[in-house]
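Summary: Need help interpreting a holo structure output

Steps to reproduce:
1. Submit the protein chain below together with the SMILES for zinc ion.
2. Request a joint structure prediction with the ligand placed.
3. Inspect the structure token block that comes back.

Expected: a single structure record containing both the chain and the bound molecule.
Actual: see attached output.

Input attached:
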Amino acid sequence: MIDPDERQLSPSGKTQMPDGAIDIGNGTWITKVQDGTGEWVGINEWHHAPSGDSWEWCGGWVPFMLPGLPEAVHSNHWDIVSLEPLTLSPSLLCTSCQHHGYIRNGAWEDC
Ligand SMILES: [Zn+2]
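--- attached output ---
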């Protein structure tokens, strides 16, 4: 059961920070994802997660709610409150490490 006030990230399992990652504070980074036409369609969100004795990158794909998306996928997409600076709704919750917060005004706010 997904809390209606938050959406869940699927951890990517990647171990390397990609080029172009933007530090949005509180141990969180984002990378912009564009489609073939250059439209900004979502972000990958990155954070540190404990794994045994070390830290590894954790994160997930955050697709934007864009015009024309079918109703059936709305619960898996985030509403764009603002693109510049980036504000998304609702909050983001990592299903792997429970990293949980909002992206508001281009910054990460822990829940
Ligand atoms: Zn995580």
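--- end attachment ---

Reviewer comment: The chain has a mean pLDDT of 85. The radius of gyration is 14 Å.
Status: needs-info
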